[in-house]
Specification:
heterodimer, A: about 110 residues, mainly beta, Immunoglobulin-like, 5-stranded mixed beta sheet, 4-stranded antiparallel beta sheet, globular, B: about 120 residues
Amino acid sequence: LAKTTQPISMDSYEGQEVNITCSHNNIATNDYITWYQQFPSQGPRFIIQGYKTKVTNEVASLFIPADRKSSTLSLPRVSLSDTAVYYCLVALNNNDMRFGAGTRLTVKP
Amino acid sequence: SAVISQKPSRDICQRGTSLTIQCQVDSQVTMMFWYRQQPGQSLTLIATANQGSEATYESGFVIDKFPISRPNLTFSTLTVSNMSPEDSSIYLCSVEGRTFNTEAFFGQGTRLTVV
């Protein structure tokens, strides 16, 4: 049973806000929600982690509703360099780091 | 953050041979992880390697095929044994982060092609 479900791909244009939603209906009480970004020929890079409500850092915002069965990664004013695959993970800690299929975001000029 | 160096960055190998991939970290870490990623696909966890204990393998991966060493807190190796073309993939090393529970740092990966 997949822990997370994300759209396979999304397209956007430079300067737009992009929201990628991840479903995780079976999230456990102590699980965290984490998003990673992966560029071609590189390993994934940690973007943001949250447990509930909203988390914001210099790169993105993460919105988590009260039931925690989904989460939305928000990228403000994307640029071409934000073209990448974005992975949503639901895990307690590093021992549980199993990646889902990811969302391939393409930012167009 | 942690800086991870993986060697080799890529290799082309003959079937039936073995390749050892090295992962060097610039700081001491307890947990190191090895992943496999087919081109265009997501990452699959192969095993977790903690210093001082045997690696823990995920379902579908066995020690005879993917032996792992973890001699100290900054280094690990993954060997892909008796290779076949199906082993062609990108192999990634990662280490735990210290700021967040599910934070991990990844190497650049080793692109392996078996012919």
